[in-house]
Amino acid sequence: MKTLMILLVTSMCFSQQLLLNTYDNSGYLLLNDQVVMNFHFQYSQESSFRSYIIDWYSPPKTLVDYIPLPKQEFFITAAGKTIGTAMTDIILPESVYKKVVELFQTGTMVYVTVDRYPIEIYRDHITVVEYDRQKIEEFLPHFIAYDLSKITKAGKYPLEPTSVQIEWAVVQYEGFGGAIIPIFKDQIYTVLWSVDGTDLKGPCVVFPTGQHSVEAKVNANLWHFSLSVDEWRYSFEERAVEMGSNLEERILSISGLDIGKLTIPGTFVFLKQLDGGMEVQKVNSVDSTSPVLELNLTELSPGIFELSTDVEDMTACTIEVFVNGERIQLTRGVINLEKPNTVIVVTARDAFENRSYAIRQIIQNTQLERDGMISRDREVVFDIFGFSFYSPYVKWWLDKDVNAKVMTSDKRYLIEATQ
């Protein structure tokens, strides 16, 4: 038995422990000799004991209800005491009980100490209500570091103030304000603030733009802060931009748009950061640019042409093709032009009624002089007497008895002998 008690006391110094003080019904859960939970408990008896949890009872599922079994789960200690949340010798809060269940299920040995410790601990002193050297040495070191040799009798013992370990995070934002946030090193303290003479209490303090004097008081320690946050100058601008234009740099989109370029019409609000200020931009995205229209005609054989149209615009376009004033249901394909003189007009209209036009006149079998020259602004295909070649121009002379046809990529010319 003596060996068991020595093992129990030794193990309690290094294991998990429920320390229950019947003096004021205050309880503490110690993990590795550190207090992780403090709470109030109920104890139906007067006796003190030291033990450990040996079993955990959980109500079994039965098909009958006349067997007198406990309806709630609880712990059983080696001393025969029960611990639970109701109807047990020791009643714990639900949160503490669940934590002990977690420890027990992981195979952790949980020791239980129930005794009367008439000791009161305050911020600046200790009050020993009843002097008991053994209980003082057993209870007090869990909570504070104190020279126990100074405690020789019941009474009040002052605590030396410890240095407050705090760092201060001061943040400032031009045009908005700032904040002071305490960063506690060892423990959390209550901070009393004074901002420009107004007393405040809270975990941190915030302030608007302008000049400010802030004091932070923790226990007997006082910190002073002199702060200055400049106000931002705001300006407003309204402008119109062509849809598809690139936007300026250093702007923020309130609408969450991709601010590389505006590809949709409408009115948008942007913020542009300036040195010491902010510019609010109301931007109207408009489409006033006509579509880029291209008409291509290629003669495949006399009177037969291949027609194609291409259009580029930021919005969808409607293309219409007119041949000698009559609309045809074709924007790309092969057309037959029987008349010697044909005018082809192509129109492109976008969603904002911007229009573009392309006009091409096709003259076939044009009568030419006996000598002359045809010139173009680009190279075309000439066909003379079956010989084809590329050139931007052609010059000819023909004898009076010779008839000839000159064909280019877009026109046919006829050179006939004069009578």
The share of residues in extended strands comes to over 45%
How far do the termini sit from each other?
148 Å
Which whole number gives the mean pLDDT?
Answer: 81
Shape: elongated
Strand order of the largest sheet: 3-2-1-9-5-6-7-8-4
Helix content: under 10%
Number of domains: 5
CATH class of the largest domain: Mainly Beta
Mind telling me which CATH architecture of the largest domain this is? Beta Barrel
The fourth-level CATH homologous superfamily of the largest domain is: L,D-transpeptidase catalytic domain-like
Give the C-alpha Rg: 49 Å
Enumerate how many helices there are, as a single number.
Answer: 3
Structural category is: mainly beta
The biggest beta sheet reads: 9 strands, mixed
Low-pLDDT sequence parts: 1-14
Kindly identify the CATH topology of the largest domain: L,D-transpeptidase catalytic domain-like
Total strands: the figure is 35
Structure description:
By secondary structure, this protein is mainly beta. It contains three helices and 35 strands. The chain has helices at 2-12, 94-105, 133-139; strands spanning 16-21, 26-31, 34-40, 42-43, 49-57, 74-77, 82-84, 90-91, 110-115, 119-121, 125-128, 155-158, 166-173, 177-184, 192-195, 198-201, 205-207, 210-218, 221-229, 233-242, 251-253, 266-274, 277-286, 292-301, 304-312, 317-323, 326-328, 332-336, 341-350, 355-363, 366-368, 371-384, 387-397, 404-407, 412-415. Strands 3-2-1-9-5-6-7-8-4 form a nine-stranded mixed sheet, covered by helices on one side. The protein has a five-stranded mixed sheet with strand order 31-35-34-32-33, with no helix packed on it. It is elongated and about 145 Å long.
